Amino acid sequence: MHTPVTIIGAGLGGLTLARVLHVHGIPAEVYEAESSPMARTQGGMLDIHDYNGQLAVEAAGLMAEFRGLVLEGRQAMRILDRDGTVLFEQGDDGTGGRPEVQRGELRRMLLDSLPEGTVRWGHKVTGVRALGDGRHEVSFADSGVVVTELVVGADGAWSRIRTLLSDARPEYIGEAFVETYLYDADTRHPATAKAVGGGSLMVPAPGKGIHAHRESGDTLHTYVSLTRPMEWFDTIDFTDPATAAARVAAEFDGWAPEITALITDFDTAPVLRPHYTLPIGHRWDRTPGVTLVGDAAHLMPANGEGANLAMLDGAELGRAIAAHPGDVETALAEYEAAMFPRAAKIAAESVRFGELLSGAEGEDVARTLIDVFSTINEAARAS
Fold first, then answer.
1. What percent of the chain has pLDDT over 90?
2. For labelling alongside 127, which of 85, 108, 185, 206 has CA 20 to 30 A away?
């Protein structure tokens, strides 16, 4: 290409794309709305899978650096009943295909792998328009403008670049997380730390659940899952942390106190995280000079695949561009032809898994979940 690839969004997908392009000697410019790499907390733990996310890391030439980020033992997992009884437990012997890393450290690894100045911080997109012949103009809040021969939307669920390709907008799926943290858990909250164990915890029930991860050190990161309409959440004042936590905890009345302490003993104010999704199988007609990666392309219910898919999208797009020098349209068509069915398949699986977890009143959701994991483990041993 004669000009750098323009990437909108410095999340994992956009940065992986920039890194793979750099590996192949292709310049890229990444425009990010956030003012700096540390402008906000970058989320918690990610399990990076050997069948998609790790393939992207390999394509980026960063496998050694990635291994240095892995938190040992965090693939351990347990399922508890609401009274604290351990129903299922799986250790981490180091052979699993989903090592856990901190999202912020993974992002930093990618940022450090790029030439200085690749990411332009503080560039919030306010508009984008087609100029013809595959060229596009992107406008920013500071009145800056860039004209590019290839723009890639890596700008997440509410992508501005997606408007060039599709009228689809994310829709609320009827479920949200409420996120909390406990710090110094082993000393300040020993019963809760013991309940969570060394990796992840799931306590599922119809229409709700409590999920927690042990992050670096003895930090416990919790996602409280509730299947409720947005109007229900609108009645909770999340600007009053104590009241909000008490209202959420009330949905788990009668559960073991070491479990509900993940909500009530918060060290950070509860944060509401509604879940949105694009239509399963979301796609668009090939449009010259523009494409999407990650949530901008295929936002789906929370399933542990989002970051992995975004990174694989970025890696596959970067390799396609490198494989077709001077022929961007062939590269984009090749990338999209593989990405569309891959994303649709995982989105459909995510919906089915979500339905299993939601269950119906009276269903033994925990037993259903245990059966799923047991089947996965048997298949892994057989292979």
1. 81
2. 108
Residues in contact with 231: Cβ distance below 8 Å, sequence separation at least 6, in sequence order: none
- The beta-carbon contacts of 323-328 under 8 Å, at least 24 apart in sequence, are 325/1, 326/1, 328/1, 328/134, 328/149, 328/150, 328/289
Measured between alpha carbons, how far is 47 from 250 in angstroms, rounded to an integer? 30
**Listing from the earlier edge strand, what are the strands of the sheet with 145-148?**
125-132, 135-140, 145-148
Element (DSSP H or E) covering residue 317: helix 306-323
DSSP state of 204: E
Token reading at 231: 């109007």
Determine the Cα–Cα distance for residues 285 and 94; give it in Å rounded to an integer: 43
Q: Which residue has the tokens 């409420």?
A: 178
> pLDDT per residue over 1-52, tens digit each?
557 999 999 999 999 999 999 999 999 999 999 999 887 777 788 999 999 9
3-state secondary structure of 75: coil
Say whether pLDDT at 378 is over 60.
no
Enclosing H/E stretch for 135: strand 135-140
pLDDT at 184: 96
Tell me, what's the pLDDT at 380? Answer: 47
User: Do residues 332 and 320 lie in contact, with contact meaning Cβ atoms separated by under 8 Å?
Assistant: yes
State which H helix or E strand residue 272 sits in.
strand 271-277
Query: Per DSSP, what are the bridge partners of residue 213?
Result: 200, 221
pTM above 0.90, yes or no: yes
Task: Specify the amino acid at residue 112.
Answer: D
List phi, psi (to 5°) of 146. -130, 135
Q: Which H or E run includes 192?
A: helix 190-196
Q: What is the pLDDT of residues 66-117, one digit of tens each?
A: 999 999 889 899 999 999 999 999 988 777 888 999 999 999 999 999 999 9
CA distance 337 to 246: 48
Residue 377 is given by DSSP the state H
Is the separation of the CB atoms in 236 and 250 below 8 Å? no
Across 202-224, average pLDDT: 94
| Cβ–Cβ < 8 Å for 12, 307 | yes
